[in-house]
């Protein structure tokens, strides 16, 4: 294995010039690899063309500079690429495909357990990037918001990537600034005079929440929730959805369920006063909503793959929109590139 260069002095990024890529076999063939060591929070990158990686000193050591989605000067901006995230420690593997940040190269995963059973997240249809972009163009024509601008093309004009609205924020912070305002105001008005029940899906079970003053306040929660901005709803980890040191169990349970309800626009629907309780047929059915997530789920072969950070929030014993596979008795993990398994 080639050695990796040490970063230079003064936070200067040093390009990894050694050939660290593993060439793939031709279409329809399989390449088998064995992991020699345990790995935590790893990514397996795939690309059409040679990707560029860098090393940089951060004072306490060197770190890997990975490709940037939002830096249009990034060396990899014109390449089609993607990755599968995984952790393999103590004989247990966790792997997932995710569209929280972007849609790029089409990938799917199949986990085979030693007893012969399987788990899968098949991913998107082969031509999904172009189809998603076409649908976002249509959505822009419908509501006037720049959904279509989240599609990035290579030098030939071919769409190769779709940014999530949370990442598009870093290219155009004002694009969706007012998108959720009216919906948030309606939610606050409704739950000023009625009760929102959050099923924490913990030992605390149902928690009652109502608007008091400017905040949504939930019984037993250590602090309330201010009105979220558009970027808070896209990312689910800022503003009222930021989880802080000292937050109690109820708060940590309410945050993902409340943000998921906003992203899916279910808080004002019949039955939306209990979260989560509605099934996926009720998600993204009214405006405003997260049309990026809506369109992605339309092209997922089996409906699996995170399209926003808390896409794993589901009603009790019902459905699974996440793209996670895991087992402590793994035989092998198969990754499909370019198209889902047939």
UniProtKB/TrEMBL annotation:
InterPro entries for the chain: Glyco_hydro_64, Glyco_hydro_64_fam, Glyco_hydro_64_N_2, Osmotin/thaumatin-like_sf
Domain GH64 per the UniProt entry, residue ranges: 1-324
Highest taxon of the lineage: Eukaryota
Classification via PANTHER family: GLUCANASE B (PTHR38165:SF1), PTHR38165
Protein name according to UniProt: GH64 domain-containing protein
């Amino acid at each position: 294995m080639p050695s990796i260069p040490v970063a230079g002095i003064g936070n200067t990024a040093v390009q990894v010039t050694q050939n660290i890529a593993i060439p793939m076999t031709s279409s329809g063939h399989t390449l088998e690899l064995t992991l020699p060591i345990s790995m935590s929070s790893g990514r397996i990158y795939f690309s059409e063309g040679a990707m560029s990686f860098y090393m940089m000193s951060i004072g306490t050591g060197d770190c890997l500079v990975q490709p940037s989605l939002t830096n249009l000067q990034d060396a990899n901006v014109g390449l089609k690429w993607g990755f599968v995230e995984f952790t393999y420690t103590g004989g247990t593997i966790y792997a997932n495909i995710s569209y929280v940040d972007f849609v790029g190269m089409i990938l799917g995963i199949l986990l085979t357990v030693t007893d012969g059973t399987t788990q899968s997240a098949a991913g998107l249809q082969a031509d999904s990037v172009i189809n998603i972009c076409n649908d976002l163009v249509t959505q822009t024509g419908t509501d006037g918001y720049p959904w279509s601008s989240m599609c990035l093309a290579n030098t030939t004009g071919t769409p190769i990537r779709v940014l999530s609205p949370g990442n598009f924020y870093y290219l155009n912070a004002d694009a969706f600034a007012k998108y959720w305002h009216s919906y948030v105001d309606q939610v606050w008005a409704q739950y000023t005079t009625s009760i929102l029940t959050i099923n924490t899906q913990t030992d605390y079970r149902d928690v009652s929440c109502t608007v008091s003053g400017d905040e949504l306040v939930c019984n037993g929660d250590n602090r309330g929730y201010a009105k979220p901005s558009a970027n808070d709803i896209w990312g689910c980890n800022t503003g009222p959805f930021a989880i802080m040191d000292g937050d109690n169990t109820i708060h940590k349970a309410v945050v993902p369920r409340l943000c998921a309800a906003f992203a899916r626009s279910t808080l004002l629907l019949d039955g939306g006063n209990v979260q989560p309780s509605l099934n996926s047929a009720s998600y993204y059915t009214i405006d405003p909503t997260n049309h990026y997530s809506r369109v992605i789920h339309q092209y997922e072969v089996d409906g699996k793959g995170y399209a926003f950070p808390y896409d794993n929030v589901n009603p009790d014993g019902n459905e699974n929109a996440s793209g996670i596979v895991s087992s402590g008795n793994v035989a092998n993990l198969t990754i499909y590139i370019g198209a889902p398994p047939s």
